[in-house]
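INTERNAL AUDIT FORM
Audit reference: QA-55
Scope: verify that the stored structure record matches its stored sequence.
Auditor: D.O.
Record contents follow.
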Amino acid sequence: MKDINILVKDLLCNNLTRAVGCTEPAAIGYAAACARKYSKGELKSIEVLVSANILKNAMAVQIPQIRLAGINYAAALGFVIGNPGSKLALFSEATEETVKKAGELVQAGKIGVNLKNTDKPVYIEITVKTDENSARVVIEDGHTNIGLIEVDGRVISKGEKTPELKNAGTDEDEQCEITIKDIYRFVNEYPLHEIELLDESIRTCREISRAGIENQYGLEVGRLMNEYIRKGIIKDDLATYAAILTAAACDARMAGINMPVIANSGSGNQGISAAMPLIAVSERIMVPYDKLRKAVAMSHLMTMYIKKFTGPLSSVCGAVASATGAGCGIVILMDGGLSGIYYAIQNVMGNLTGMICDGAKASCALKVYTCTNAAVQAALMAIDGKYVRETDGFIETSAEKTIRNYGFFAKSCSPCNDKVILDLMISKLKVG
């Protein structure tokens, strides 16, 4: 059994990842780039098989540089770039030439996409066939976890797990040893300045949020609400300010901006909505940077803690998990203590549970706006000692039990819900 602080640090460091663009298309591009590495000769075809959750999250979101949506474009661009070392930041390396070549592959009908019959939420299988050989790459369980590499039917690599899955996502016994109190103690005692990804999370959130405010991306949720404040139509309060800055970052990301973010548990939107609300609140209440870093660490860790119970992808919106994390982080900023963190969790869970995930797309910014607003509300109530009691719904006597109930709900409902949601999404494509 590892020391608990090492477990918490592993949970944090192994679930923060640099990403450019939505992580599901990026993971598809990464798999295609891996297959390209083992291919030789002239390309004949690329076959893509994905799980329902990957299909749902990759159908409608725009891909950086191409600024088009589609699994076929993600696979084509990843193959043409061909640098698996960049992992989920692969698309940042796209040029006009690679974008053109990717488009030509799609237009030539060389990319096939189908649904894989699997219970795994994260599953991507890429088979590249050339005039000289074939290469097959399977990503499963985690967005960068390569479970299989096969060339001409011969297994090159099988069953190796990334650090994310080795240390922070699959060892249920060890992970269940972590408590919310352990996380709280860690962020208050560990030298967090040593974890550079925390500072990068803060920096990249600020940059992409600014881009979303200043430009017309996606639904322009952040930019438009900011304009309404300027016109005096809505109030410039703490919750609205945090929601605007967070939604603006999501607007830009869902529109395919070529800017990096730090993804949390495989989701860039979770990374944004775990960190950006705290940056906004810290600006308004004027706290030192060290305290902001603690709050961001708390938020990221609580988001990861919750995702451990819901799974990496499900039919519930990931912004609920990151809003819970953000609520805990705001409590840190306002010196609400451990009890305030427990109360904030009960408040967010008692409010937002039931928000579904119907894929990654521009309207994710609306959900992020709503969840961020709720996170601020939950934290302020918690600091004042007000919280949802165990008499209400699935809320339990402790925050840990409430999170377990939420995870059970998410995993139990997801197979049925995802099928219905995906059927509805696909039916739109067949109309006309």
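Auditor finding: record pair retrieved intact. DSSP finds 17 helices and eight strands in the chain.
Action required: none
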